[in-house]
Design goal:
Layout lengths: L11 E4 L6 E9 L2 E8 L2 E6 L2 H12 L3 E2 L14 H4 L21 H11 L3 E3 L7 E4 L1
Antiparallel strand pairs: 1-2, 2-3, 3-4, 5-7, 6-7
Length: 135
């Protein structure tokens, strides 16, 4: 697994791709499995930690830029985007990487900045329609 070992006591401070919102990310465990804990203000989201390696592998295979397409769980994801892949029944876990019902979306907003910080991707930082590609 990609080396990400930030704890609750020492989370990684990140910004959304446009740079408009701050959030933190740390590693924890739930039911014995590693999860990413994303804290945005008072909102706490959980993602299956396998998403880092799985998304990197998918982007490598894709071989080009891909739109992020971040969207809340209740909204449809833009086709052929990172968000759509993060909830697709064709990804490696066959469904949502987000783990908290009602807060499973926004995968395309919060996971790419973590991957950039880990040196796994290039990420655009425009006001809208940002894209990602694997390194």
């Amino acid at each position: 697994m990609t080396k990400f070992d930030r704890s609750r006591e020492n989370p990684l401070a990140l910004k959304t791709p446009p740079g408009t919102s701050d959030f933190t990310m740390h590693l924890d465990a739930k039911d014995g499995l590693p999860i990413l804990v994303c804290t945005v203000g008072k909102t706490v989201l959980h993602y299956d930690a396998r998403c880092i390696e799985d998304l990197h592998a998918m982007l490598k295979a894709h071989g080009d830029w891909m739109e992020l397409g971040g969207a809340d769980e209740q909204k449809p994801a833009k086709e052929n985007s990172v968000e759509a892949w993060g909830r697709s029944d064709t990804n490696p876990i066959r469904g949502w990487y987000g783990l908290k019902k009602g807060l499973r979306g926004r995968f395309g907003v919060y996971i790419p900045p973590l991957m950039e910080a880990l040196g796994l991707c290039e990420l655009e930082h425009q006001a809208k329609n940002n894209r990602i590609r694997a390194i």
